[in-house]
Amino acid sequence: MTDQTHDLEMALAACAAGDRQGLRRIFDDEAGRLVAVAQRIVRRRELAEEVVQEAFIRIWTHAHQYSPDRGSARGWIYAIVRNRALNLLRDGKREDLVGEDRLETLQDGEQLDQIMASFHKLDRNSRLHECLGSLDEIKRRGILMAYVGGYTHGEIAGRLKLPLGTAKSWIRRGLSSLRECMA
User: Fold this and answer.
1) Which pLDDT score, from 0 to 100, does residue 13 have?
2) What was the pLDDT predicted at 110?
3) What is the pLDDT of residue 101?
């Protein structure tokens, strides 16, 4: 376990005990990256900041639910941010103000290339790289689009030119295979 992982676990334990300094340590260490993750999903800085603020409230009120046996502290924290961002999109409380020039950039696959590049940036010796590499290309692409790019199942189906049900089931089966491999 790295020092940073241990520090996050200790900070979550402090939050669970009602120590505000624990939340402050998490904020100081992770807030910038959390905003970047949320912004990739919701595509607007002010909404990303709102997502992270809501996530920190949830971290504070639910820190007692974190269990190191079920995953890393960082994974738990980032999952909260990701879920908050996706909920914001699902609730339709977001207006996507995209200009014509930006729309062309989104459509030309540049963003998809960046998402796929994240797989290649993983440490080649890591278990995650090995497990993602064992998946079919289409399942790996769908999972990365959902969990790195923040795409909805509908967006993934459209970009991969698949029926929605097929995209959902491939992502679900891919995640199942990934969980099994990581265990």
Assistant:
1) 93
2) 64
3) 42
Residue 154 lies in a domain: yes
Regions of the chain short of the pLDDT cut 50: 93-108
3-state SS track over 8-31: HHHHHHHHHCCCHHHHHHHHHHHH
Give the CA angle between residues 98, 102, 103 to the nearest 5°: 75
What b-and-e string marks burial along 16-42, b requiring 16 or more CB atoms within 10 Å of the CB?
beeeeebbebbeebbeeebbebbbbbb
Residues 85 and 107 in one domain: no
| Cα gap 164→147, rounded to integer Å | 17
Domain with 156 in it: what CATH number? 1.10.10.10
Output DSSP code: residue 88.
H
pTM reported for the whole predicted model: 0.54
d(CA 8, CA 72): 9
Q: What is the per-residue pLDDT for 1?
A: 54
Q: State the Cα–Cα distance between residues 141 and 113, nearest whole angstrom.
A: 10
